[in-house]
Each structure stands twice: as structure tokens, then as C-alpha cells.
Amino acid sequence: MDELPERQRMPEALRDRMWAELEPQLEAEAPASRFRSMRAPLAVAASVVVLALAAVFVIPQLRGSQVGTASGGDAQIALQCAHADGGLPDPTSWRPAARIDVDATDSFLVIRNTVSAAVCAIETGQRVGVMGGPTTRADYSKLTAAHPYLYFDSMNYPAAANHPQESIHFGIVASNVKSLELLGPDNSVRQAIVQDGVFIVRTSIPEDSNQPNTNSVRVTLNTGQVLVGPLRS
Q1: In 49-75, which positions are buried (b, 16+ CB within 10 angstroms) versus exposed (e)?
Q2: Predicted confidence (pLDDT) per residue in 51-64, tens digit
Q3: How large is the C-alpha radius of gyration of the chain?
Q4: How are beta strands 51-52 and 106-112 bridged, if at all?
């Protein structure tokens, strides 16, 4: 009997095409995304999730990327996210700016172009959607020398049995911003990810829209100048 040929690795193009055909069938049986029950933009007590998911794409698993560093795979995600939203102008102009991995399956990628920025929610490397609506787009034209940062969105996780209360805040910064720290009302200090004109900061303190000011920020410019002000302006 002739020996069987040596096992060969399936070409990636064929594997991706097979997965693209199977994924819609699996999607119908997949559990609901936990982002649909946990996002509370701004208000601490809000319980409604607003995720604009106009389409679902098969995308590569994120590999080898560190918190705050956009990888080559993220560039593909940024374009897919921009096209899926349907409301982002010139979808081909968007690029990845900074990313944060919440846990083993969930991440957020801030995407931007020369005009504005938005947040993509990523689940298990496959689901891509833009958080919020037109009101959660950051406008770079609003940045000034006196106010070189702008908050525009949050993901607030309420306390649960398997995790504590936690929030992730997103914003944009001018090109001369070196670092940004979140100053909580409890005197806590959280260092933000600052990269390519955006910032992401993870904290236990939500941003409460029912209060005139919840968190503050301390911004350090490239010149060494330090500015302090409210997170929301």
C-alpha cells in the first residue's frame, strides 16, 4: 500500500473562503453580544447600549499587539468598521490610532482620519461595529491651544459578580500633547494611552452626565507646559 502523502497546511485564502461561507450559519446561533447590554454612554445608571452594527465581517484574529499600539491587522479592522457604519464620511480615509484590550475577547479600537475620530468595538476578533451615533464623533477642528483635548465617548461597565465597576473613556488630543492623566474625584490618577491624536483611559470611575463635572484631566504638552481641566467641556 502506498504511503499517504504528508499532511499539508490549508492555504489561508481557501480557509478564509470556507469560513466566510460557514460564518453566517454560525452567526444565527451565536449568543447576543455582551456589548449590547453593558454600554452606558455617559450616564452611570443608563442601561441602554447604542452600537451601530450595520454589517458583520470576518476579520483576522488580533495577534501580537500591545495595549495602545495599532497593528497591521488593525488597519484592516479600521476600514471594515468605517464601511460597516454607513455614516462615516469617506470610509477609505480612516486608519487605526490606538487600541485597548479589555479582556481575552473584547477590545476597542479608536479610528480616525484628518477630520474626526470614532470608536470600534471588537469581539473575539470577528465582530466590528462603531459605538454610538453621529454625536459620538470627535471633531479635530474643535481643539485649541487653550484646550488641546476633547472627550467624546465612554464604555461604562456596571459592577457584577465576575467583575468590578469599570469605565473606559475615549477622546482626541492635539499633536503637541505628550501625555494625559485622568484625575478622579477620589484623587485617583490614571495614565491614559495617548497615540496618533487620540487618548484612551481605563478607570473605575464613570463619567456621569447627571453631574456638571465628574473626572478631570491633566495634560502635559511637548514643551513641558501642564494644563488641568474637566474631562468634559
Answers
A1: beebbeebbbbeebeebeebebbebbe
A2: 333 322 222 222 23
A3: 20
A4: unpaired
